[in-house]
Design goal:
This protein is α/β, with parallel strands linked by helices and about 425 residues long. About 45% of the residues lie in helices and about 15% in strands. The strands form two sheets. Strands 1, 2, 3, 4, 9, 10 and 11 form a seven-stranded mixed β-sheet that branches. The protein has a four-stranded mixed β-sheet with strand order 6-7-5-8. Helix 3 links the parallel strand 1 and strand 2. Helix 19 packs antiparallel against helix 20. Pfam families: SBP_bac_1.
Length: about 425
């Protein structure tokens, strides 16, 4: 198994001797991406081509791109969750693809800073694309030094989905908006043999929901401090952990949530084995029509004294962007042609209408074939917004935090132990 590449590894690879030493160490990894030096071939490394929503649309628009640009070929390299690892390996070997389509999370947070990808701010302006991007997306993709890491593309709303038919079957006549109501609903659902809140307590979905619940008593500014430093000792963070533990031990989450994954979560909700899930828009797009027909989207219920005045959701504009590599700089005219094509309003609309994707770009298109995605887009002021911690968690702490998340979802684990696990994720990273 290939070991993760560190920030130090990227920096060391900047010198010829270090690079020469580094390449044999990673050459055993399979799927080493290989750039094509042909100026008429643009090598794009993407997750669209797997089961990711939008893959079929991407394949179709690339075919259209080829028809319009007969002298320019897009060669796609497809990876799933291991894309960042594969890209880093290819970059150390100086064989990286020209464009990378991936989210801003974990390893990728460091790419621009260490020269693995380039600042695209000037290109955004030179190519006349700034007005196409939502200001919030530009803010999230811009680092602390004012560099735009990539061209924003996919976004995500992350509300809570409630199966109103299951709630009614259990005798719950309205979507819960407070913790007490959620606990009461969970008891009634369990009495009918229905799992209350399903969650991937053993992966990133559980990590995000845990972070959202902990923020019940934190302002966004306070949450940034907590997740940047890993210090959960403040009053608001401790109260949030206490609230999470109270919900967990009251049976709000599905049985053995600490071992569930995002796939288990979506399966339980889509088959109506569970009544509630915290679901980003790509998951909402997969809810079957029957279940979607009696699903209401809203926010996570609050506790008395919360820092928010409305149930919360998460939003992100960093789901997929177009990153330019150092090799891509050598093919800048081809990269410009490709990105400008992908930014066209009609292309953007296809991802919304055909795949139910939320976009980080300006558009009036609504997901009519994906009603829950559309409902999430229209929540507006009916919900508050918690901070998505991805941009603030140090990359080395990301995976340890998921391990800590599984500990947190294990019933009976004390609030003090949950806090210790979360803080240890930063110390051991």
């Amino acid at each position: 198994m290939c070991s993760p590449l560190s920030r130090r590894g990227f920096l060391a690879a900047g010198s010829g001797l270090a690079a020469a030493a580094a390449i044999p160490a990673v050459s055993g990894c399979s799927s080493l991406a290989s750039a094509d030096s042909d100026p008429g071939t643009l090598v794009v490394h993407t997750q669209l081509g797997t089961t990711a929503p939008g893959s079929a649309t991407y394949t179709a628009v690339v075919k259209e791109f080829h028809r319009e640009n007969p002298g320019l070929r897009v060669k796609n390299l497809v990876n799933g969750d291991d894309l960042a690892q594969v890209y880093e390996t290819s970059r150390l070997a100086r064989k990286e693809p020209d464009v990378v389509m991936v989210n801003l999370y974990d390893k990728t947070l460091a790419w621009t800073d260490v020269g693995a990808t380039v600042d695209v701010r000037d290109h955004l302006d030179d190519w006349g694309l700034r007005e196409r991007v939502l200001p919030a997306a530009l803010a999230e993709w811009t680092d602390g030094k004012g560099r735009l890491r990539a061209f924003p593309y996919f976004a995500a709303n992350w509300p809570v989905a409630y199966n109103t038919a299951l709630l009614e079957r259990a005798g719950v006549d309205s979507v819960p908006t407070t913790g007490d109501q959620l606990i009461g609903a969970a008891r009634k659902l369990r009495a009918k043999g229905i799992a209350p809140v399903t969650v991937g307590g053993n992966d990133w979905t559980g990590q995000k929901l845990l972070a959202q619940i902990i923020q019940t008593f934190l302002t966004p500014q306070e949450a940034r401090g907590v997740y940047s430093t890993g210090d959960f000792s403040g009053r608001g963070a401790r109260e949030g952990i206490d609230y999470f533990v109270a919900l967990r031990d009251a049976g709000v989450f599905a049985d053995k949530a600490q071992g569930l994954t995002s796939d288990t979560m979506t399966t339980q909700y889509n088959t109506e084995a569970a009544a509630v899930q915290s679901a980003m828009s790509s998951a909402l797009a997969k809810v079957p029509p029957k279940t979607a027909g009696h699903t209401e989207v809203g926010g996570w219920p609050l506790a008395p004294g919360a820092a928010h005045d409305k149930p919360t959701i998460l939003r992100s504009f960093t789901l997929i962007g177009f990153w330019i590599s150092p090799n891509g700089v050598k093919k800048l005219p081809a990269v410009e042609t490709f990105v400008r094509f992908m930014y066209r309003p009609e292309v953007v609309s296809r991802f919304i209408t055909e795949s139910g994707r939320d976009m980080a770009l300006v558009t009036d298109t609504v997901s009519k074939e994906f009603p829950l995605v559309a409902k999430a887009q229209q929540l507006g002021g009916r919900v508050g917004q918690a901070l998505l911690p991805d941009l603030y968690v140090p990359p080395a702490a990301t995976q340890p935090l998921i391990t800590a998340t599984s500990t947190a979802f294990t019933r009976g684990t004390s609030a003090a132990s949950v806090r210790s696990a979360l803080e240890s994720a930063y110390r051991t990273a």
